[in-house]
Q: What sequence folds into this?
């Protein structure tokens, strides 16, 4: 059975929280990738930033619905969520827009487990660790490539 180490990309493109949004866009474009792993000053994985995070910056701001009852106003959605959206939309660095608490896998995680995580959590960039050290990354293209090249993988119709 194939494992993460069999399909991962070993030369991982990484960024830091200080990387500008403009530089991130250039990195993703020049390397033809959909996301990058965010590392702290100790080279530990702290999150992932993707093209979706960049696109988010250009969306329309959703104003939460408010109901007025007897001179009181009630938000039907969290005003804190709106604040976080505004912060992300105005972000100038990766630190402002990246997804924290990255979901990671170990290099011996099976392809079936990886595909399940990616599908259920809507993740397209998955850092691969050996102990606590980044050793690779698996993108959705890696899973698709495996389905296309491995006999017996994917659907049996």
A:
């Amino acid at each position: 059975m194939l494992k993460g180490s069999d399909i991962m990309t070993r030369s991982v493109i990484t960024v830091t929280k200080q990387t500008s949004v403009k530089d991130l866009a250039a990195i993703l474009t020049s390397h033809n990738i959909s996301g990058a792993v965010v590392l702290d000053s100790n080279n530990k994985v702290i999150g992932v930033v993707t093209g979706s995070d960049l696109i988010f910056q250009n969306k329309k701001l959703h104003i939460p619905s408010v109901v007025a009852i007897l001179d009181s106003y009630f938000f039907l959605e969290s005003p804190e969520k709106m604040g976080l959206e505004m912060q992300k939309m105005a972000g100038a660095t990766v630190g402002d827009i990246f997804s924290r608490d990255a979901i990671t896998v170990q290099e011996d995680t099976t392809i079936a487990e990886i595909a399940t995580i990616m599908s259920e959590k809507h993740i397209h960039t998955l850092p691969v660790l050996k102990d606590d050290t980044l050793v690779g990354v698996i993108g959705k293209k890696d899973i698709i490539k495996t389905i296309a090249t491995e006999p017996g993988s994917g659907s049996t119709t």
In short: The chain has one domain: 4-149. Residues 21-31 form the longest helix (11 residues).
